Amino acid sequence: DFMQASWDIEEVQAKGIQHLASFVKDKSAFPCLLKCTEVITRAMKTHIDSLELQAEGCTLLLEILSQALEQGVMMALDERVASCLLHTVRKHSGNEEFLISLCTLLMMVSASEVAAENLRKVGIIPDLLSILRRFLHNDEICFSCCAVLWSLAVSENNGDQAVLESAVPVTSAVLQKHLQNGVVAESACSALWALSLQGCVTDSECEPTAALLLDALRMNPERAVLVKNGCLALASLVRLSETAALAILLDSKGSGIELIKDEYHLHFDEPGVAEALCLLMNEMVQYDEVMLDMRSQKMEKLLSEIKLQFPFS
Hints:
Blueprint: H1 10-21, H2 30-34, H3 37-46, H4 51-70, H5 79-91, H6 96-109, H7 113-121, H8 125-134, H9 139-153, H10 161-165, H11 167-177, H12 182-197, H13 203-219, H14 224-240, H15 242-249, H16 256-266, H17 271-284, H18 288-296, H19 299-309
Helix pairs in contact: 1-3, 1-4, 3-4, 3-5, 4-6, 5-7, 6-9, 8-9, 8-11, 9-12, 11-12, 11-13, 12-14, 13-14, 13-15, 14-15, 14-17
């Protein structure tokens, strides 16, 4: 009530946010803090020029969201809150240190399908891409932004085809830059999977994107989630174009088929990885020339192994 009575006074909003932050450690205050998210974001929007207030508001929202996730509470932030966050993103898009926190907050918010949909509605995707282009070197920002992109692109009711298509080269650039950073590469592979699933990869992008995904698998073979999502992305690319299937067979750095075999043997006890590999192979055998090559490389033997390992799946 104190904050709502004086929106225009920055000191009141700053003191209010600081006071609310003092309750974060008190578990019994959590249900009340959950109801304060709109008040906090409105204070941030009203005093958007104050970086200090933005930082304190962002930190408090992160604390509340972290507790919500710990307790299994999904926070479906409405469109007004999404709009406030977008204003903050636009106003402080050049402040790298602040963006690390803000992008982490956006990633946590987008875990909710409703909140992700609201972020998409207010048009945050071009701003995310702009941030990625500017801070391609920053692994924390790249990780968070790719995770948000995945959440926004994976939604089925997507009306942003042109915007999403422009995300493919940017996400590929992130993966290329951070191939050796497993956490960022995993996030970028997931985003590319969602984008390819939506048919956003053009014919000319299929081959280089497939080659890049194979590089990610080679560089991070031990990361089961990356392998699974990388294979799912490859399957979507193969579904879009035979060029992607041929790129897997004829990759200049070594046979993609041998790589698939190696990944399976490394993760033979992971049903998610096996399923993704089967999906990829199923897409590849739709092309006669590719199927003949797979047969010559004894893929039937691998399929038999998978069938024995997962007889009830």
